[in-house]
Request: fold
Amino acid sequence: MSWISWTPLDRRYDLCHVVTQDSHANTTDHGPRSGPGADQLGEAAKTASDDKPTADAPKKATIPDFVGMGLQSAQDKAQGAGLHGLTSHDALGRERMQAFDRNWKVRSQTMEAGAFKPTDTDLDFGALKLREDCPAKNEKPPTAEGGKVPNFAGESVKAARSALDSGVSLTVKNALPDDRWVLVESNWKVCTQEPAAGTSLNGQPVTLKAVKFEESCP
Reply:
C-alpha cells in the first residue's frame, strides 16, 4: 500500500505568503531607526515656517523734483513713480480748492527731491495759481490759539471762518460801498474785524469786512 505525503493547510498558507520565521524576525520592532525622527522633522518645519517673510517689504522709489511743474503734471509723474498718496494745499493759506489741477503749479513738496522713500508715503504739494508769484514760504492759515481771536487782516474770509469754531455766529460784509455778495470766500481778504485780534472768544458774534484780493482795503 502506497502512502501519499501531504502538507498541512496552514503550512501551505504560510508558503503562499512566504511567511517564515526569518521574515517575522525582520518585522520585529527593535527600537528607533537611524534618521530624523518626528520631533526633528517638526522642528525643521517650524524653522522653515519662521524663515518665511510675514509680508512683502514695502517698495521704494527715488522722489523726483516737482517744484515748478504744473500740478497735474506733477501728480502724473508721481503716480508713474509708484506714489499714490497724493494731496495738495493752497500755498498762500487762503484754503482754496485745487479743483482744476492744470490751473495750478507746485511751489513745494513734503518729501525732498532725491530721497529714497517707501512708495506708500504720503506726498503733499503746496500749490499756487499759474499767474501767482511764489511766496518766500508756505503761508499757513490762522488759528484761534489760546481761545483768542486771531488777527484776520489780509487773510481770506474762508481761512478766517475755518479758524473759528463752527458754532460762532459770523457775519461777512463787503468793505466797499458797492452792493456785492461775498460768495467765494477764498477770493476775498479781510480788511477789518470785530472783535479785535487778541480778544478772548466767549461765544460773541464776529463781523468781518472784506474786499477781493486784487482790491485795496478802504
Observations:
- The longest helix spans residues 38-51.
